[in-house]
Amino acid sequence: MNGWQTLLKKEVLRFWKVSFQTVAAPVLTAVLYLLVFGHVLEGRVMVYDRISYTAFLIPGLVMMSMLQNAFANSSSSLVQSKIMGSLVFVLLTPLSHWAWFTAYVGASVLRGLLVGLGVFVVTLFFAVPDFAAPLWILVFGFLGCALMGTLGLIAGLWAEKFDQMAAFQNFLIMPLTFLSGVFYSVHSLPAFWQAVSHINPFFYMIDGFRYGFFGQSDVSPWISVGIVGAAWLAVSALAVHLLRIGYKIRN
Description:
By secondary structure, the chain is mainly alpha-helical.
């Protein structure tokens, strides 16, 4: 196997060995969100015509689970390797910074997609959303996981202990995710908060992903894919640069 393929396999096995925690637990969390919000707001909130609130909620929960787990995969792997001292064994290999980037982000994308698929399959018992544009579902699913996996890579390089990684996730990733329109349409917000929501790149991932199911969205999917793609290219350039200079991993 090539170097990046070996490292990718190692990263995939790392989360798959504890799949009950890394895959099954996020699925259960998403189902609990669906039970609570769907039960409370079903029949009281109508976002799109002829679409129930529960059906509207499912794509948002799927995407939210994918984003959070893609971020957690690469960030936790690097921080754990730093604390345990096992990162040195990867540093001893002649792997390039591109190999590191491909392996860590690739494993994050795979975990995110697996969690998203699990959430979607389980939530089918509650409502069956349409598939108006399946290609958009795949595009935004991949781009969203890749962007979050890359952000997780940057966070893992920066953080030296779990407290720092938790701060990155709790004060940046979680607020941006919950304020991206997972549980509501931004059109229901006042004008000021609609403008604020359009600054949040997570909003475009959720909105574009939801468009793939219903064929309706708050903004054009072409605008969303352009913004998400540009954001991924920007954070990828930063992540590759940090890996190339060995930021906080090489003395």
